[in-house]
Each structure stands twice: as structure tokens, then as C-alpha cells.
Design brief:
Blueprint lengths: L1 E5 L12 E5 L9 E10 L2 H7 L10 E2 L4 E8 L11 E4 L2 E3 L5 H4 L10 E2 L11 E5 L4 E2 L6 H21 L7 E4 L3 H13 L5 E4 L3 H9 L4 E3 L9 E6 L5 H9 E9 L17 H5 L4 E4 L5 H13 L6 E5 L3 H9 L6 E5 L2
Parallel strand pairs: 11-12, 11-14, 12-13, 14-15, 15-16, 17-18
Antiparallel strand pairs: 1-2, 1-4, 3-5, 3-9, 3-18, 5-6, 6-10, 7-8
The structure holds zinc ion (2 copies).
Length: 342
Amino acid sequence: MKAMVLNKIDRLENNKKPLNLVDLPEPAPGDKEILIKILACGVCHTELDEIEGRTPPHKLPIILGHQVVGTVEKAGRDSARLKPGDRVGIGWIFSSCGECRFCLEGNENLCDQFKATGRDANGGYAEYMTVSEDYAIKIPDIFSDTQAAPLLCAGAVGYRALRLTGIEDGKKLGLTGFGASGHIVLKVARHMYPNTEIFVFARNQKERLFARELGAVWSGDTEENSPGRLDYIIDTTPAWKPIVEALKNLEKGGRLVINAIRKQDFDKDYLLKLDYPVHLWQEKEIKSVANVTRRDVGEFLELSAEIPLIPEVQEFRLEEANDALVELKDGKIRGAKVLKIN
Ligand SMILES: [Zn+2]
Ligand SMILES: [Zn+2]
């Protein structure tokens, strides 16, 4: 099978072709696994974090990609839930132990043995992959293969962030940062919590206007004061300034949810502006989002079909994965980038 593999961690500036096209043997499914013929795989910022070493794979070479859509080609001896031909998706969660306290409490995303697709196990930048059938999620028919792919990551994690706010309909929600994940959270929140007013903070005027078009009642720059305090704020930025500024706008007892795998260091000194009475006192809470559970991915796919939420996509061939990654790094975004495979 054809696959694009990562052999070496390096900055993309130093090597604009981080992935190499290779021919590998088709993997064989274990007893509880399925072999998936991959149809599409989304291209995510997390791949850049892997390639550049911010969240490095534990072994190399590795096949990246964690927004995988495909059909079951072959089911292992003990897999009974899925059958050949079923169309499934695999998100960031590749597996967890299933036995620890976190797994049993429904927080399998926090399992010590959490394995990520395309980082700790081979992912979707290839023609085939294997995965435990328990971690493959059925894709609603409404989506094409390439449309379904981007929903498996940014959307599912955004949905988890919204869940972690503990939101109640009618209370006020803020979003700081308004990229792909922010748009999705806004649409899902409007659908699930119709009486909740949404406030968006973004550096870019175009994003602020877009937020209003999508139904935000107010939008402003990162450091502006929102009109009134907000009960929940979700941060989807790589920076620290939006955290400090969001805490200022948080209502008493409010919660800030940080949806980021890693924060960058360039503005870390902004944290020195943290003023206890202004930013933290009055029982304000901060919670981060780590990974996703199968429940998040499954519920989010169902919700997306119901709303419906159909992503704009830009298709690339498997062989063009490096071009897609370079465009993503350069901020050339015309819809979510997806590899169309098979
Ligand atoms: Zn991702
Ligand atoms: Zn576990």
C-alpha cells in the first residue's frame, strides 16, 4: 500500500517535504481489530506539532493522520460489531486501557495508556490502517467522505470543550480565538443552547465580522471588555494574552476552558499581568481540554448531521500531503484540508 511516512522531526522551514511516499505491506488486523480501506484523511495542525516536535511520536517512522474516514475491508476473528463495507471514522483516540479509574469513569481521554492515532499508532495518511473495532465510529450518511474527515478532530474537541464548560441554556458564552474550531463551537452552541448569547474575541476584523454573521451577539478584539461578564469562555488560541484577557471578562464563579494541546512561548510574559483580584478571585475556574473520548466524537457526528454542519473542504491527493501541510503552516486556509485517498 502507498503511505506518506514521517522519518525525522524537524522544523518545516528546514524541510518542506517532511513526509516520504513509500510502499508498505498492507497491515493485517488482530483478532479484535478491523482493517480499514481509507477513503479520506483530514490534515490537522497537530500534524505540524508532531513533525516539528511539540508533540513528537514515540517511534519513527510513523504514518500521521487522525481524521480518518474509510470502509471496513476485513474484520478480525473476534470483532462482531462492524462488518465489511461499513463506513467508519477514527479520531485522535486510537485506544485506551479500558480498565483504569479514568477509563471506567468515562474519561478515557485521561488514561495513562491513551494512544493517539497517527502519533502512537499508524494513522490515515495511507491506503489502509488497522484499529480496534471499539474505537471506530460509524459515519452518518449525510456526509461525503471528505466532508466527514474534518469533523473527527477540531469539531469533536470543540464539542468536548463546550461540554467541559458545564453550560446551561441562557447563560453567556464567550469564545476567544475564532478559527475552524471556534466556528464549529459557535454553531453547535447556537443549536443546543438557543437562549445563550455568544460573544467572540478575535484579533482579526474579518473574523469578528464573520462571527456576527454566524450569530454572535457581539464581537471585539482580544483585550476588549465584553458588554457584561460572561459565564463561560472557551479559548482556542495558541497564546497567553487571550487567557489573561478572558479571565478579566469572566463572571463570578465562571469557567474558562482552554482548548489547546500546547501553548506557544512567544507572549508568555503576558502572564505577569495576572492580577489576582481582577482575574482569579471570586471563584473563577480554569480547565484545560485533553484529547477526546469516543463519546465526544460520536455525539458530535450525530449533532453535525442534525444541524446540519457541513464543512468546506479543500481536497489533496495522498502524494500531495506535504503541500497541504506547508499551506496549513503558512495560514493558507480555503476550507479544511483533506487528503482524498482510494
Ligand atoms: Zn487534529
Ligand atoms: Zn485507562
